[in-house]
Amino acid sequence: MALDRWIALVLVGICLAYGYAAWFTMDGGLAPFMKRNPIWPSTFPKVLSVLGLIAALIILFGLEKSEVSEPDIDYRRLGDYHLGQALLLLGLMVAYALCLRPLGFLFSTTAFLILGSVILGERKWFVMVPVSVFATLVVWYLVQQVLGIYLRPLPGFFGG
């Protein structure tokens, strides 16, 4: 079986476990007044599990392929790909998750976007820095002000 089908099989298992949690365990602790709402906290996970299961089954059964072709990624030649960049990005994601709370959203997200684009090869600082700052501020504004979810904007030692 091809690598994409093995990955799809793993995703089917993950979607089934996630769907079980969404359909049978998430709504048990709801308050009585919330049980009459049309949208529950588990609505999005339910939709996500069904769509993920459908997509994984399409790949597993090979319905997306029209003809047999050479695989895009040859796992026997992983050294030929940009594996260093991928591992650096994964490390950067972990560092971002660890720095988000102590350093605040604005600094952590801006630094993550700038360092991520440097890792991927962007060298135009005059474009990269303003775009990263603008994107961070827009996301913070939307989450904080529009959705009403508190994100600590500044580091704790600044009073954020």
Automatic annotation (TrEMBL):
Residues 6-151 form the DUF1468 domain. The chain crosses the membrane at residues 6-26, 47-63, 83-113, 125-143. The keyword Membrane applies. The keyword Cell membrane does not apply. InterPro entries: DUF1468. It holds the Pfam family TctB. Keywords: Membrane, Transmembrane, Transmembrane helix. This is Putative tricarboxylic transport membrane protein. The lineage of its organism: Bacteria, Pseudomonadati, Pseudomonadota, Alphaproteobacteria, Rhodobacterales.
